[in-house]
Amino acid sequence: MPEDLVVTRTLVVPAAELSERFSRSSGPGGQGVNTADSRVELSFDLASSPSVPDRLKDRMFDRLGKRLVDGVLTVVASEHRAQLQNRAAARERLARILRDAAAAPPPARRATKPTRGSQERRIAEKKRRARTKQGRGRGGNWD
């Protein structure tokens, strides 16, 4: 029986809300690639999940908008030859995606005025650049 998925200290997704599908994987594996179902699709229905608080659910919907299909987030892992390793990779990837989506937004940046020194450096560089470009043109007097 798979265990619960720990996303953060306060957010734990019960194993009953996760669904796994297995299929044949392309890539490394030799002859076993045609017989072993090592590819893992791990799905989590965010829309109908009672374990995610509503305030977090809204934030996660905003951030995961393009990744969700009918409110379901699906992660695929097929980089390993063994199904067990792919299951662990998929669970880790899903936890990271949910953790990033649930993270608090960064504090708003307070705009500040540019310093006098930075303004002077900017103007000096603009003048230097203008002189460089002016020298590239035709001289004008070709007598």
TrEMBL record:
One Pfam match: RF-1
Region ranges (Disordered): 97-143
Protein family: Belongs to the prokaryotic/mitochondrial release factor family.
InterPro entries: Pep_chain_release_fac_I (IPR000352), Pep_chain_release_fac_I_sf (IPR045853)
Residue ranges of domain Prokaryotic-type class I peptide chain release factors in the record: 11-136
Biased composition (Basic residues): 124-136
Protein name as it appears in the record: Ribosome-associated protein
Annotated source species: Saccharothrix longispora
